[in-house]
Amino acid sequence: MIEIKIILGTIAAFLALFSSYLYIRDIFRGNTKPHTYTWLIWSIVTTIAFLGQWVSGGGPGSWATGVAALVTIFTFFLSLKGKYGVKNITSFDRVCLVLAIISILPWLLTNNVLWSVILATIIDLIAFLPTMRKTWSLPYSESLGSMYVDSIKHGLSIYSMGRYSLVNLIYPAAVLLTKFVIIGEIVYLRKIKKAKTHNR
Q1: Which of 21, 86, 151, 160 has the most crowded CB, counting CB atoms within 10 A?
Q2: Residue 3: is its pLDDT beyond 60?
Q3: Closest of 184, 172, 186, 154 to residue 12, by C-alpha
Q4: Per-residue b/e over 81-105, b at no fewer than 16 CB within 10 Å?
Q5: What is the reported pTM?
Q6: What is the residue-wise DSSP string for 110-140?
Q7: For 18-24, what is the mean pLDDT?
Q8: Which sign does the torsion angle of CA 144, 147, 151, 153 carry?
């Protein structure tokens, strides 16, 4: 069982790299525009989630989250450049950022990793909202291929956890659910846009 988890954890980590490659490739091609605040928030909370999984015995299941944290930070820096990212920052986006920073406090003040990971997960879900808001008007501004690969990655990550606990499972499970939602949004909106184009 342990060997299977190592294999699946390794596959999940490579899928994290592959989905990131698809996303970053689309950024350089001008097909995808990451929202700066979303990716800054994700940089913070994904790092918290990875560290929480790692210290809680996540083992191979945490590898994909670790890779995702590194690539998320890289994507955030890319989004700072005007030709690559979107910076239509709203008050709601600023609130999300403040909440992301606050999520670090329970771990620092009480050494309780569980509450930090729970808060980080909630904030990660909230951080999807600016991207979903942007996607509603720009359905082709996100990489659908990387979303599909990410969904598989999170599924494998969940299965390959070295230790099943709320700390280790809540983050990948919540993100997997959110990926399904945003994939549905993108597919639906693109179909509507194509239908409108054909009817002209």
Answers
A1: 160
A2: yes
A3: 154
A4: eeebbbeeeeeebeebbebbeebbe
A5: 0.74
A6: H--HHHHHHHHHHHHHHHHHHHHHHHHH-TT
A7: 86
A8: positive
